[in-house]
Specification:
The longest helix has 22 residues, at 169-190. The protein is 50% helix and 12% strand. The chain contains 13 helices and 7 strands. The chain has helices at 6-21, 43-53, 63-68, 71-78, 80-85, 104-116, 154-157, 169-190, 193-210, 220-232, 246-255, 260-270, 277-283; strands at residues 33-36, 57-62, 92-97, 118-121, 124-127, 131-138, 161-164. The two termini are 28 Å apart. Helix 1 (6-21) packs across helix 2 (43-53), helix 8 runs antiparallel to helix 9 and helix 11 (246-255) packs across helix 12. The radius of gyration is 21 Å and the shape is globular.
């Protein structure tokens, strides 16, 4: 049996509880989950994988855009009112992306959603009786994280069970192996030999690098330093190309063709931590590209 990440195990627990609580009605709380963690720890991508594996209809709502967007932008982002009404189909989980980046006014609309399964849309309120539960993502608020202009209140946090997602090399490597092996399987069926080779190269690189003790993801302290440097330089914190997190590492993989040379070149364009480059070069010194 496939070993699951800690986050997937937690999501499984919520799914089991939610299914046991059906049918929902107004006033009945579902076991909502708040995923707290730095950007790039895999909160969204691992949840997407979990949803696919469990045949979950995962509906994303980018909280900052939900209330403040124009009708045209709203329809473009969410497929219009017709698609929103498809939320009534079975095994639907709402995913509130960047919950702590929404204004207090914006988040107040979701109180009804969390408490009574009533979603405020551009055309009025919509009762969603078949929503299994709601997942929201948030950064652990710090003074230097200026993107979080309105931190979650304790009352808001109490609407959720909280779970901290951290950069975990073992979990991310397991996730990458699963995702790329599924890509390879599909590409073999389609006869796309070039893509098969690229995926094999990418996952071989990931296994080689992430299994090495010398490689480490960005620490919380380094993230603080980055925000401080951006602040002093007059830049908007978080506007850089990417940090050495799970998300940025995967971005480097995707930008490469699966070869060592291409990976090192894509590192320069996708990652900002120059001090990590010599470590990567040392780890890959004796690495041989996948040839079959």
């Amino acid at each position: 049996m496939e070993k699951k990440t800690k986050l997937e195990q937690r999501l499984d627990e919520h799914l089991e509880r939610a299914l046991a609580m059906q049918p929902f009605s107004e006033g009945k709380l579902s076991p909502n989950l708040l995923l707290e963690g730095e950007t790039g720890t895999g909160k969204t991508s691992i949840t997407r994988k979990w949803a696919r594996k469990n045949d979950i209809n995962l509906f994303f709502i980018n909280v900052p855009y939900w209330i403040d967007s124009t009708q045209k932008t709203f329809d473009m982002l969410y497929g219009g009112e017709e698609r929103i009404r498809n939320l009534s189909k079975p095994k639907t989980v709402l995913f509130l992306e960047h919950y702590d980046l929404g204004t207090e006014k914006c988040r107040s609309f979701f109180s009804n959603l969390v408490e009574r399964h009533v979603l405020s849309t551009s055309n009025g309120d919509l009762f969603l009786p078949n929503i299994l539960f709601t997942i929201a993502t948030a950064w652990p608020f710090r003074e230097l994280q200026t993107l979080v202009t309105s931190p979650l209140t304790e009352a808001e946090k109490q609407k959720f069970e909280r779970y901290t997602v951290e950069c975990d090399k073992e979990e991310h490597l397991r996730y990458l192996n699963d995702v790329y092996n599924s890509y390879i399987e599909s590409a073999i069926k389609e006869g796309d030999e070039k893509f098969v080779k690229e995926c094999k190269g990418r996952i071989a690189l990931a296994n080689h690098i992430l299994s090495d003790k010398r490689f480490a993801y960005t620490s919380s302290e380094s993230l603080k330093e980055d925000y401080e440097k951006a602040k002093k330089a007059g830049r908007k914190p978080g506007s850089e190309r990417g940090l050495t997190t799970y998300t940025s590492f995967n971005r480097v993989l995707l930008a490469s063709d699966g070869s060592k040379r291409s990976f090192l070149e894509s590192w320069d364009s996708c990652a900002v931590e120059a001090e990590q480059k010599p470590i990567i070069e040392e780890i890959l010194k004796d690495y041989k590209d996948v040839t079959d």
